Amino acid sequence: MDASSEPPEGQAQEDETPQGKHASNSQNGAERRAQPRAQADWPITIALSEGYFQARLRDVSSSGVCFHMDRAVPEMTVLRMQLELPGTQGSRRVDGTGVVVRCQRVAPAMEHFEVAVFFNELGEEDRAALRAYVSPEAG
């Protein structure tokens, strides 16, 4: 493979940055997500063994969510979550169980973390509602 078939320098970074409601999946391999996702900015309730915590969603897909939280959650932690998915005819409550696949501190001086969760239990109706929400036709 010659150098001209490689993506231009910096392209992978651009592909990973969501623009508008919907974020596109990259064709060059930089994007690892299998499902489309949509940016989000509303509360999510997280149930951990220590109790219930409020967090703020960053994005949603039919396979998982990413949110910001004031505490670290170790990778492979199983947690329950509940969110209100906005819609044109009111909101829909979505409940599920997921596994933490990534937890990163947002800034060195802050106790604020970005947590990515893969759904391992989600009802088909809830998954369909998330799929409809993130579909390009929905936005």
Protein architecture, described:
12% of the residues lie in helices and 43% in strands. The chain contains 2 helices and 8 strands. It has a 6-stranded antiparallel barrel with strand order 3-4-5-8-7-6. The chain has a single domain, classed as Thrombin, subunit H (Beta Barrel). A hairpin with a 7-residue loop joins strand 7 and strand 8. It starts with 10 loop residues before the first helix and ends in a 5-residue tail after the last helix.
CATH architecture designation: Beta Barrel
CATH topology: Thrombin, subunit H
**Largest sheet, spatial ordering of strands:** 3-4-5-8-7-6
Overall domain count: 1
Order of helices and strands: HEEEEEEEEH
**How many beta strands in the DSSP annotation?**
8
Unreliable residue stretches: 1-31
* CATH class division: Mainly Beta
Assign the CATH superfamily: predicted glycosyltransferase like domains
User: What's the end-to-end separation, in Å?
Assistant: 39 Å
Q: Percent of residues in helical segments?
A: 10-25%
In terms of structural class, how would the helical and strand content be classed? mainly beta
Strand residue percentage: 35-45%
Question: Judging from the principal axes of the Cα atoms, what is the shape?
Answer: globular
Sequence-ordered SSE layout with sheet pairings:
Layout: H1 11-16, E1 22-23, E2 37-39, E3 43-48, E4 51-61, E5 64-69, E6 78-85, E7 92-105, E8 113-122, H2 124-134
Antiparallel strand pairs: 1-2, 2-4, 3-4, 3-6, 4-5, 5-8, 6-7, 7-8
